[in-house]
Amino acid sequence: MSVWDDLQGQAPVVAQLKQAAQGETGLTHAWLFTGPPGSGRSNAAKAFAAALNCEQDDVTQRGCGVCTACHTILGETHSDVTFVRTEKVTITIDEARELVSKAGDRPATGRWRIIVVEDADRMAERTTNVLLKAIEEPTPRTIWMLCAPSPADVLVTIRSRCRPVSLRLPPAADVADLLVRRDGVDRQLAERAARAAQSHIGIARRLARDADARERRLETVRIPLGLRGVTAAVMMAEKLVKIATEEANSSNDERDAAEKIALLASLGAPESGTLPPSMRSQVKQLEDDQKRRAKRSITDSLDRTLTDLLSFYRDVLIIQLGNAVELVNVELKGELEEYAGRSTPETTLARMDAINKARVRITTTNVAPLLAVESMATSLIQQ
């Protein structure tokens, strides 16, 4: 199994990265991987890192997926490859300084010291400036790989010093093939999950594996069918925020408890009684980090919930314009056609714009999510 196997529908990108990995001469010291959520930009960076440090002597076989270097890099345990992702709102300036320090180390076992920043768009300008000199004048044998949704999400001073790698969302059929081949998902369920996820590989895998997730998504998509009046809009907003919160908490609660148990065990904490002050401070730091992670989880989950809601109006617009492409929510085709007949394409576009504005407010400002969703919901009321 090659390290490139997960990059479904990305043949031009794979060819570009393979060529770079096969010849060290002229290899760029900084790369910027961009693409919409679900396009696999972080997977592409990870595969490239594995290929660069692959142990195969034959350069055409680098990225074999079977050598120790490939296994440890794909498992994120290789000593020379650092993966950076944040579960907070932003990457802090102290974290950026640690990266610069680590980038100055020579590789211990591999050919390259590689820093993969998966959330480069989550750095403030002053944080990004900390990385600028390290990227502009890197130490020998060091390669930076930054990942972001689009080039515009990274400061121009940074992106001008990086070689661009642009990814696109793979076709739904390719995502379904991956779920069948790698995860053993039933073909019909895989196709349904890939279509509902709009080709987002991670979301498609979750939908294919989790019946509750599929049910929550369908519940979200059906909400506009009963949206009449302000009262219904307020109730819809509460329901959407509740769905997103439950979705986030379902994955956070167990993890938070396990992290606290592991921390107490590592500190040698007593099984009962009051913790010493030094231990209490570390537990408090963990709890603060978990609260910040929970806030981002809910924000990300709500953004995904609104994306699912957006797919309803996307399908309505497709029907209103003559069914030029396949619907995302095929199982609701009859209800979608009835809804489409009661409005115009202009109205549908306005409703889609209201959802996108709410997504921007929730992910980029400190507005209370419920207030943003309530404001959006009143714009979606059927006349």
Automatic annotation (TrEMBL):
Region (Disordered): 269-297
Keywords: Nucleotidyltransferase, Transferase
Bias (Basic and acidic residues) ranges: 285-297
Source taxon at top rank: Bacteria
InterPro entries from the UniProt entry: DNA_Rep/Repair_Clamp_Loader, P-loop_NTPase
Root EC class: transferase
UniProt-listed SUPFAM superfamilies: P-loop containing nucleoside triphosphate hydrolases
Residues passing through the membrane, by range: none
Transferase as UniProt keyword: yes
One GO MF term attached to the UniProt entry: DNA-directed DNA polymerase activity
Enzyme Commission number: 2.7.7.7
PANTHER family: DNA POLYMERASE III SUBUNIT DELTA (PTHR11669:SF8), REPLICATION FACTOR C / DNA POLYMERASE III GAMMA-TAU SUBUNIT (PTHR11669)
Name assigned to this protein: DNA polymerase-3 subunit delta
